[in-house]
Each structure stands twice: as structure tokens, then as C-alpha cells.
Amino acid sequence: MKELIASLLLWIGAETNYNVDIVHPEIKLMTQIELERKFYGKDIEPSGTLHAFYDPEQDAIYLNSAFDRFNAFDKGVLLHELLHYVQDVNGTVGTKFECLRESELEVYPLQKKYLLEVHGVVFDYDELYLKLSATCNPNMY
Question: Residue 18 and residue 103: Cα distance in Å, rounded?
């Protein structure tokens, strides 16, 4: 995993102006149910759609325990969360971005570029939904 994180950080450094000469985040593997309950809360019924998340308070990335370091999509998921970590370490939330949600506007296009250029995988997402969900408000994380 260390080698994969190092290679993803090198890619991020080549594609952005962020400092990526940083301590690697802690990676925590969890079952799908544990992952969703940690992110959404214990009273939420797991939907099976959450792949991972970055917790800025713990400087940790939580991944599904089914994560496969040889799978292109899974690498894209890890890259996505590493980008959030790099943004956090570089102090973008509150300066470049009003909130963590807004930083998705940078992360999704970079994830798409990574998957296409490095793995030849087309990653489509709903850009309108992304713009709407990346809106900051006091009730969001």
C-alpha cells in the first residue's frame, strides 16, 4: 500500500501545485457496513454506495475492506481521497475552497483524468449533480 500511495502522490504532485512531500495518511480498512455507519452515523441503513472517505480530524482515509490495489477503479477511489488529504495538508479548505464539499470540484476532474490517462478507464460522473452537491452550507461537513 505504501508504494501505491507514493505513486499516487507523485501523480498528484505532477498534476497540481500542491506540496506532496508529506507524511502519508493513515489508511483504515472497514467493511461496507462499518464504513457507512462511520460516515453517515449508526442510525442510517447502509446503501452500499460509499466507497471511501477522508476524515480530516483523524488525517485518515477509510477504505472498504474489499479494496483491491490492482483494480483501476479502486486506485481512482484512493486517489480521490488522497487528493482530499493533500488539499487538507496544503490548507486549501478555508482559502482556496470555502468547505471540504467544494473541493470536490477539483477532485472529480483529477480522478477522471487519472483513470483515463493512467488506466485507460473512462470515469463519468454527473457534473450538474457535482456542482449542486459541492455547495457549502453550515449543515454540511
Answer: 13
Cell of 132: 449542486
pLDDT tens column, 41-76: 877 776 778 999 999 999 999 999 999 999 999 999
Residue 134's alpha-carbon distances to 44, 75, 141, in angstroms, are 22, 22, 11
Element (H, E) at 53: strand 52-55
Q: What percent of the chain has pLDDT over 90?
A: 76
Give the list of residues 6+ apart from residue 6 with CB closer than 8 angstroms, or none: 24
- Cα 23 off chain centre by: 17
Q: What is the CATH number of domain 2-133?
A: 3.30.2010
- State the Cα–Cα distance between residues 129 and 118, nearest whole angstrom: 25
Distance of CA 60 to the CA centre of its chain: 11
Domain range summary for the chain, segments of one domain joined by +: 2-133
For residue 78, count CB atoms less than 10 angstroms from its CB and return exposed for 0-12, middle for 13-18, buried for 19 or more: buried
Between 104-119 and 2-15, two packed helices, what is the crossing angle to 10 degrees? 110
